[in-house]
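We emphasize that the prediction below concerns an isolated chain of 395 residues; any contacts that depend on oligomerization or on bound cofactors are therefore not represented. The input was used exactly as deposited, without trimming of termini.
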Amino acid sequence: MKPVNFEKNDYIKIVSVNKSLPTVIAFSSVNTQKGKFKPYKILLSSGINIIFVNDCGNRWYQNGIEGLSHSSEVCALELVKKAKEIGNGKVITFGTSMGAYGALLYCALGKADGCLAFGSEPELCLPGSRSEQHILKGFSHPYPKLNPVLKDNDSKIIIFSSEIDEIDLMNSYSFCINNIPNVKNIIISGMEHPSVQVFDMNNTIGDIIKNFSITLDIDSPIPRESSIPPNSSLIPKLYKSVILKKNNENASWLNSLEKLNLDFPKTAVVLSKLGEARLRNKDEVGAIEAWLECINISNYQFEAHAKLGAIQRRNGDYDDAYANLKKAITINPFGAHTYHTLGLLYQNKENFPLAEINFRKANSINPGNKPFKDSLYKFISDDIQRKKAEINNWT
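Result of the prediction step, given as a token string:
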């Protein structure tokens, strides 16, 4: 095999810090353009050697890396070999969502020392999954399932999942029930997929990565660790429920959650989903009741606060709406929908500067959301007309 040129490759970027430090191989998430890497800045804060990897085209790292090899196994071995050369010999992998799949796959194939994975899927293209939605169509999947690849692996693996994301929960459950050795499975409350945001809140993700690269463990207490165990029988039932939602079977979705609320009483995540299902089925009073019970049980149910605030805004209860929306942002400052609703609230109260700030914040977090774009466009158009009217009044 010819020597690999790592220096002139738009899909690989090496940041060499110090030969005495470990190296992390970081896998980019979906829709990352050629020559770009995600996440980037937060990984640089780790202060260790980094090899950034990009799978432009959303192939879930199934067909290797462009410019390196079309074999994932060859790529994994070459990347780990290079990572050892630029550092002290210890190598970990890291990724979120699609990148988490790549991190786990290449950790196993390349025999890295450990892996930090946030929001990974153990099996590609399950109904409702992100791979089903985003993966490049028309090519074979050499590794459609991760569990067989990880089964005989000695690497230390930590997998994080989001409590409020039913797909994430089901993925966590699948990793757990397959009894993969050396895997620590952690569910995080109060964060959306892929849940890495909980560490980003306090700018600690760099420290977490660095400490894991040295100790191959998470030494500090996990913030917001869910009370739901990864092997809970609740999880596959929540997954079946969300598939009903995705298929617009609203009555069946509601019935499934009403039953779960009886079978698993006083469970915050069930109550949060139940409120949403009741509202979809035109039961606003019942939705509010579920969300109020939810937030009384748990301090981290930002979705319940945000959805409750949205109803209160529509009903003209601006003070209560503001309190719930601000609470939602305190819990999860990365929720685009919350900022959008807050923008609408400020618009209702004719606080136009703050309305614009929040509309722009929602768009910056989720730039592909058409309703967010429409709200910002309409706000700017209306604002131009308001300012013209003010000028006319002055003259």
